[in-house]
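Researcher: Structure prediction, please.
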Amino acid sequence: MARQNYIFTSESVSEGHPDKVCDRISDSVLDAFLTQEPEARVAAETFATTNRVVIGGEVGLANQAKLVEYMGKIEDIARSCIRDIGYEQEKFHWNTCEITNLLHEQSAHIAQGVDASGEKDEGAGDQGIMFGYACTETEALMPAPIQFAHAILRRLAEVRKNGTEPTLGPDAKSQISVTYRDGKPVGVSSIVLSTQHLDERMTSQDVRAVVAPYIREVLPEGWILPDTEWHVNPTGKFVIGGPDGDAGLTGRKIIVDTYGGAAPHGGGAFSGKDPTKVDRSAAYAARYLAKNVVASGMAARCTLQLSYAIGVSKPLSIYVDTHGTGQVEDAAIERAVAQCMDLTPRGIRQHLSLNKPIYARTAAYGHFGRAPEADGGFSWERTDLVEQLKKAV
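Model: Predicted structure follows.
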């Protein structure tokens, strides 16, 4: 029987974290090419360190002239990302850091496995396993620890950027340990926050005085108790931040991007990859299906796994685990999701409208648990499959 009383911890990182700077640039490059050509193939990776950003990977466009034209815009895209995040420090400034563009044309051998041709349907961009998860812990049907760790940093970014708290810097990490009683989140046993600050005179106590009201504002009422442990900037000063303080890479925060460790992860990163890459699109589909299962009342928790082979269109397997909370058999849910959604790469892209420039916004504060947007952003967070799933079981 599953444990009912325990403490579970998740962490998040801000948009100014070195790895998230890289995710943002990679996804912004992707958005630029999708704006030009919705079927663009992109696998963009970014590395950032002191005063330097390096962008590499593969791009495929049907219009080769446009490919050459857009290659010339990569530097401006990167600088715009860094400026929006807020880096204007001496050794990492949006206007002065060196940008190196090493993007090149997509491999023809990869393309031949993915592209539709003759009697062959479009195949998956790679082999792999992808997981989706949903639970009733929060309104967004996300695990509480990661959802509120994200919410803390999003709120601090808002007040930093709107000028309310000008002493805060872009780089930050949060971590909260949530107490569960009878299987439900009821409070926070500890809060860890490290945030860059621009005033070198600020102590850890000074930083806590700035951030504590926003943390209390974000967390549910009654969750912070007198014995809740606080660790704010526990190492002291945090003035040097971002890629100047620590190198960054695309795709290094995959647990932050998903469920904070509360559910499995297939291992493939998301940022910089176009939606023919099932690492990304099938993970979105798995979340979409798991969320609709939980929203339908079929289960209080649902883990859903998909698996693919490169060049093969249909998933090799569909697995559902409702962790003993299911109102119908897991096998019946597996059959229902296969019936209600085309899980080929093209089927996923069409169902969720993924061939759009909607990815830069996913690069920080989680790919899941966000509100669906009018232009198609976070379409995998919709719960529009509920009635169809109910009829199918």
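Model: The longest helix spans residues 18-36.
Researcher: Thanks, that helps.
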